[in-house]
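Field guide to reading this record: the first block holds the primary sequence, the second block holds the structure written as discrete tokens, and the final block holds curator observations. Each block starts with its own label. This record concerns Helix-turn-helix transcriptional regulator, catalogued under organism Candidatus Companilactobacillus pullicola.

BLOCK 1 — SEQUENCE
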Amino acid sequence: MIKVNLDFMLLKKKMTVVELAEKVGITQANISILKNNRAKAIRFSTLEKICQVLECQPGDILEYTVDDE
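BLOCK 2 — STRUCTURE
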């Protein structure tokens, strides 16, 4: 499973979900879906913009874990 760890980066940048959504150009609902690990996919262009805004690498917000299924 791929997890999206936006909480730490948002805290580090002292940024809210609303601010991130505005700067990235997607809805607050879509940022929340990512943040709560309910997204099935993410466009590279969206990931790139999130990384630009948060000044981070994709590996700073994406984490792979083995499913227990």
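BLOCK 3 — OBSERVATIONS
DSSP finds five helices and two strands in the chain.
The chain has a mean pLDDT of 95.
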